[in-house]
Structures are given as C-alpha cells and as structure tokens.
Amino acid sequence: MWKRFLAHVGPGFLVSMAYLDPSNLQTDLQAGYSHRYELLWVLLFGFIFVLIIQSLAAKLGIITGRHLAELCTSEYPKYVKYCLWFLAELGVIAATIPGVLGTALAYNMLLHIPFWAGVLICGASTVLLLGLQGYGARKMEFTIAVAMLFMASCFFIELSHVNPPIKEQLEGLFIPRLKGRYAVSDAVALFSVLVVPHNLFLHSSLVLSRKIPSCSKGVKNVLGKSRSTVYGLALLASGQSCTVVTTYSGQYIMQGFSGMRKCIIFLIAPCLTVVPTLVVCSIGGASRVRQLINIAAIILSFVLPFALVPLLKFSSCRTMIGPHKNSTCITRISGILSVVIIGINTYFFCTSFVSWLVDSDLPRFANAIISTLVFPFMAAYIAAVIYLTFRKVSINVALPSRSVSCEIEVEEVQRQDDKDDCLAVNCGV
Fold it and tell me: What is the reported pLDDT for 2?
C-alpha cells in the first residue's frame, strides 16, 4: 500500500503548487488585511470545486492514456487546435509571471538584491531545476515536495506568532458573508486564482507517468523583522517552485499540441515560457508588481474556459472514456460550478477592463477606439466558449480491457523513469 502511495504521490505535489504560488499569497494577504477571516468560506467552497475538477483531469489521463492537450489535438479542427494551443501557452506565461515576481521580491527582502537581478536569477535557476528531468521525473517531484514542506514550516511558524482566534476562523469558514467595501471583488479574486488552466493540462499529463511590495511591507509591520524573513523564505520557495512547475506544464502542452519529440521540447518550451516572462517582469519592475499580478490573473481568467470546457466535455462523454464517464450528479455539479466560475471570471475580466478604461489617462477618442475593438472581441470570446460547450465529441478512445495490479503499476512507473533517463541522456539534457 505504502509503496503504491509513494509511487503516485509525486504529481500531487506538482499540481498543488498552483494553490501556493505568490499570486494566491498576495490575494489571500490582501483579503485577510481588508476583511480578516470573513472570506474564508470562499476558499472552502473554492477548494471543493478544485478537488472535483482536478480529479476529473486525473481520471481523464488515467482512463484514456492521453492528456488533455493530446485529446484536444485529436478532437478539434486544426484552426481550433492552434487557437487552444496559443491560449494554453498564454496561460502558462501568465501563471509564470507571479512566480518570477515573487522570487525576485524574496531575493530583495532577504539579500537586498536588485529586482531585475532577482528576475534573472529566477530565470537561470528555473532552467537549471528543469534540468533535473535528465535524472528522472522523481527528482523534480522530490525537489518540489521539499520546497512545499519548507513553505509549510514557515507558515506554521508565522501562524504560531500571529495566533489567530479560533472562533473567528470557524465563523469565517462556515458562515458566508460579504461585508465591507470591495468584499465582492476580493471574494471574486480569491476564487479566480484557485482554478488555473495549466493545472488541468498538467494533472492529466502527470498521471500518465504513473501508469508584492505593499504586501511585503504589511508582513514586516505585522510579523516583525525576524518573521518577515521567514515569510521571505517561504515566498522564495513558493515563487521558484511555481515558476518551475508552470514551465514544466508548458512542456506537456507543447508536446500534446505539436507532437514534437520530447528532447526538442525540453529545449524549446522553457525558452518560450521563461523568456517572455522575464521580459515582462523586467520592464514592469518592482513598482508595478501588483499591477502585473492583476494582469496575469485577468489573462488566466480569460483562458480558463478553453481548458475547463473541453475537460468537462471529454470526462462526461461515453465514447471518450466509456463506463468511466462522469455520473449524472458529478456532471451537474461540475457543470453548475463551471458556469459559476466562468461567469465570475468573465465578470472579473470585464470589470477590470472597464475600470482600467475609466482610470486611464488616454484621450476620449482612444478609449472609444479601444472599446470598439474590445467589445466585439468579447462577443467572439463568448461565441467560442459556446462552440466548445455544445460541440459534440466525435473521437473514440480505445480503453484498456482490464485494470492493472498495484505491483505492475509501480514497475511501470520505474520503467517509465528509466525511459525518461535514457531519453534525457540521448538528447543531451
């Protein structure tokens, strides 16, 4: 039992990094500072939804033997496939931005390294850590697991210092409330950062191998200098791990949509993800960290339906996964929750754009031109989501005739690791 558990637990650490990235930390800190514990219920319901969605992604990969990007390539026409590929890569870059920013801020807090230098160090260390693939996937999973345990230790140290009242936490966790200014927008932000598109591609892929300055100042004021150092260490581990995992997921996305050899993707995908991120973060600088994180969140909200809708369609289709398709109850629950989160993200995207348009210093004619271009674009966006939702799944996937025993599964994992090692050596990784 334990042997099987240890053989399959690695992907869980990689997937869970999406919920401990600097974007989540920044959003949680902001919500906690403004509303204390009143929005904990949003996280509770959000994680319930996340558990359902991620379990569907894992099931899809296990049953079909192919991950989400490969299934999208087989199912949709070429022009749709390329659009989905572009949006998926855009989502990976957007998800990588908070990781790079968090790492650079952590270096600045701990070692007083200039922000731009921290960005470059993060990029270089990401490429080096991705090189662990050359020694097998287990090495990378172990590294991320150690980083997560380190983050957990730092957070428990901070928690013991703050000593939050249990009664207020329980009330915030089980009594939904939206009091105070910006409570709705903060709740939307909390919910939006939980479900990220690249994680759906990543989780369905990994299971196959087994078969902010203002926030930093606030932390210093609340926790003191020594505790802010602990937070800086946790932020460093979070940012670096997040950057590695999102770049890693980009490799699977590129492999699924392009069909290129893995050894080529190992070289191209990190550059495609890390280089644009480094450019954006370097240009934005430390003074615009929060704006960059907000922009990244908007992009992720925009991209999410184009990963979530295919996942729900495929996992609910009998011709795709046969008798393992979602039950009626799961289909309805996941469908309702998906409509809610897509609606929330669309609201978040539209209100953020309108707010930016109102507060911008652009001339009126420029605002009019931008509005003329954007709102038809939003209509096309909604039409694309409707197309993916109501398009009938056409492909059939050959399912395995029998289940595999625990021992054979573990042996298969080891053989897969050996293949990865040989491939990495042959490709010179």
Answer: 62
DSSP state, 181? T
- Between residues 133 and 104, the one the model is more confident about: 104
If one counts every other C-beta atom within 10 angstroms of the C-beta of residue 377, the result is 10
Q: Phi/psi at 28 (nearest 5 deg)?
A: -65, -40
Nearest-10 crossing angle of helices 137-162, 115-130: 140
What distance in Å separates the CA atoms of residue 249 and residue 252, rounded to the nearest whole number? 5
3-state percent breakdown (helix, strand, coil) of the chain, nearest 5: 85, 0, 15
- The C-alpha atoms of residue 188 and residue 182 are separated, in whole angstroms, by 10
CB count in 10 Å sphere of residue 136:
19
Q: Categorize the per-residue pLDDT at 353 as very low, low, confident or very high, splitting at 50, 70 and 90.
A: confident
Whichever domain contains 154, its CATH number is 1.20.1740
C-alpha span between 133 and 50 (Å, rounded): 27
Q: What is the spatial distance between Cα 268 and Cα 261, in angstroms, rounded to a whole number? A: 11
The token pair at 302 is 């925009």
Domain that holds residue 293: 2-427
The alpha carbon dihedral of 384, 296, 274, 203 has a sign of negative
Determine the straight-line distance between the first and last CA of the chain, rounded to whole angstroms.
34
Has residue 51 got a pLDDT over 70? yes
Please, how many CA atoms are within 13 Å of residue 340, restricted to the half-sphere of its CB?
13
In Å, what is the CA distance from 238 to each residue of 84, 107, 221? Answer: 28, 12, 21
Number of domains in the chain: 1
Cβ atoms within 10 Å, residue 102: 31
pLDDT category of residue 196 using cuts at 50, 70 and 90: confident
pTM recorded for the entire structure? 0.78
Q: Max alpha carbon distance in the chain (Å)?
A: 68
Question: What is the number of alpha carbons within 13 Å of residue 147 lying toward its C-beta?
Answer: 25
Query: pLDDT tens digits, residue range 397-408?
Result: 655 443 333 333
What's the confidence (pLDDT) of residue 424? 46
